[in-house]
Amino acid sequence: MKIGVIGGGAAGYFSAIHASGKGNKVTIFEKSPKLLSKVKVSGGGRCNVTHRPLEISKLVKNYPRGEKFLKKVFRHFKCEDTIDWFESRSVPLKIEADGRVFPCSDDSQSIIDALQLEASKLKIEVKASTGIKEVQLNGDSYLLISDKGEFLVDALIIAGGGYPKVEGYAFMSNLKHKIISPIPSLFTFNTPQEPIKKLMGISMPDSHVKIEGTKLNYQGPLLITHWGVSGPAVLKLSAFGAAWLFEKKYQAKAIINWNGDFNEQKYLDHLVQYAKSHPNRKVSNYALFEIPTRLWEYLCDKSEIDLNQTFNSLSKKQINKLVQNLFCHILSVNGKTTFKEEFVTAGGISIEEVNPETMESIFHPNLYFAGEVLNIDGITGGFNFQAAWSTGYLAGKSSVKITI
Ligand SMILES: Cc1cc2nc3c(=O)[nH]c(=O)nc-3n(C[C@H](O)[C@H](O)[C@H](O)COP(=O)(O)OP(=O)(O)OC[C@H]3O[C@@H](n4cnc5c(N)ncnc54)[C@H](O)[C@@H]3O)c2cc1C
C-alpha cells in the first residue's frame, strides 16, 4: 500500500515513521528543499521538544484551540511518550525548571538526526522540493499533483503546517474540509505611547495581567521590552485572546498587577503598616513588594510621590495612587510583535471534521491530518511540538491499520 505524507516537518516525519512497516511504502512530499526546517530553528536553535509530563487534564489547558480534541489524542501519545521515543533513540533529554524539555545537547540538530535516521531505517522515501499543488479524490485513493509529476496514494496524511493566509490551504480545496481563517497566536504587546518602555530589561517573576473588557487574565513572569511588554504572562494572554485581539486590531488596555501575590487591600495594608514601622525611611530607598528599584521609582513618580519623601509623609491620596499603580497599572496596547522564539498560527482545518481517535477525515476514508495544519495551537513551552508528535503518531498508526 502506498501512503503519502504532505509536509516534511515534525508532524510529517512522525506520521511517516508510524505509518511505516507491514510492507507499506511511505513517501514524504516536501515543497521546500529543506526538511524539518522549523525544528532546526525552534526554541532558539535548542528545540523545546515537549513539556514535562503532566496529567492529560492539565496538559490540555495549555491549548487555546483544541483542548477537548487533544484530550482524546493524548490518551494515545503524550509528553512521556515523546520523551521515551527520543531517549530510546539515543537523544537524552533534560527538563528545565519551568517544565520545558530540551535535548541535553542544547542543539535541535539532535532531534532532526533522530527523526531522519529513523526515517531512513524504515526506508521512507523523502521527496524534497516537491510541493503538492492539488489533491484530487480518485475513487478510494488520492492523486497528488505537483510540478514534479503526479502521485497516486492509497492513504494520505496532510501535515503541511500552518499558513498565514487562508489561500495557503487552496491545494486541498477538493477535499471540502472547513478551514478556520488563520490568525497569529503567541505575540508580545506593543505599547508605543507608554513611557514604561524606558525600563526595558526589567522583569517581574509573578505579575498578573488582564485585558480590560474581557475575562482574559494570566499570572506569570513579565518582561518590559523596548517596544512594550512580553514574558509568559503576556504570551499566554496573546494565545488565549488571539481572536479577540485580532478583532480589536490589537488595540486594548492591559491591566497589570506587578506582584500577583498581592491584591488591592494587601498592598494598602502593607504600605500603611510599613509607614508606621519605618516612618523616616525614604520611599525611593526602599522598594517594596519585590519590585525592582527602577520600576518602583517609576511607579512612585506616576503616583506623584517625590522621591525624597519619607514613608510617614505620604498623603492618603499618594498612598491610594501608589496602590492603584501597583495593583491595576493600565497600559495602552497598540499593535503586536511576533514572538520569534516560537510563533504559531491559530486556525486551519476545523477539528470538528476530524476524528480525534484516528485523525481521519470524517468525510473521506484514508485521509488524515496531523500537526499545525489543524486548528490546534498551544502556548509556549513545548506544547506545539507535543501536538505535532501526538497527532502525527495517531495519523500514522491509524493509516497503517486501515491499509492492512
Ligand atoms: C521560530 C519558531 C520556533 C519554534 N519553537 C518551538 C519550540 O521550541 N517548541 C514548540 O513546541 N514549538 C515551537 N514552534 C512551533 C512548532 O515549530 C510548530 O508548531 C511545528 O513545527 C508544527 O509542525 P508541523 O509539522 O505541523 O508543521 P511545519 O513544521 O510547518 O511543517 C510543515 C511542512 O509542510 C511543508 N508544506 C506545506 N505545504 C506543502 C505542500 N503543499 N506540499 C509539500 N509540502 C508542504 C512546509 O514547507 C513545511 O516544511 C516554533 C515555531 C517557530 C516558527
- Unreliable segments (pLDDT under 50, ≥5 consecutive)? none
Q: What is the H level of CATH, i.e. the homologous superfamily of the largest domain? A: FAD/NAD(P)-binding domain
Helix amount, in percent? 25-40%
Distance between the termini: 8 Å
Q: Could you say which small molecules are bound to this protein?
A: flavin-adenine dinucleotide
Rg over alpha carbons = 25 Å
Molecular structure report:
The mean pLDDT is 95. This protein folds into two domains: 2-184 and 345-403, FAD/NAD(P)-binding domain, CATH 3.50.50.60; 187-338, Helicase, Ruva Protein, domain 3, CATH 1.10.8.50. Strand 14 (217-224) and strand 15 form a beta hairpin. It has helices at residues 10-19, 37-45, 56-59, 67-73, 79-87, 109-121, 232-240, 242-247, 264-277, 293-302, 316-327, 383-403; strands at 2-6, 25-29, 50-51, 93-95, 100-103, 125-127, 132-138, 141-146, 149-153, 155-158, 179-185, 187-190, 203-211, 217-224, 228-230, 251-257, 329-334, 336-338, 344-349, 367-369. It starts with a strand and ends with a helix. The strands form five sheets. A seven-stranded antiparallel sheet has the order 17-16-13-14-15-12-18. Strands 6-2-1-10-20 form a five-stranded parallel sheet, covered by helices on one side. The chain has 404 residues and is of the alpha+beta class. Flavin-adenine dinucleotide is lined by residues 6-12, 29-32, 37-38, 41-43, 47-48, 131-132, 159-161, 171, 340-344, 371-373, 382-385, 388.
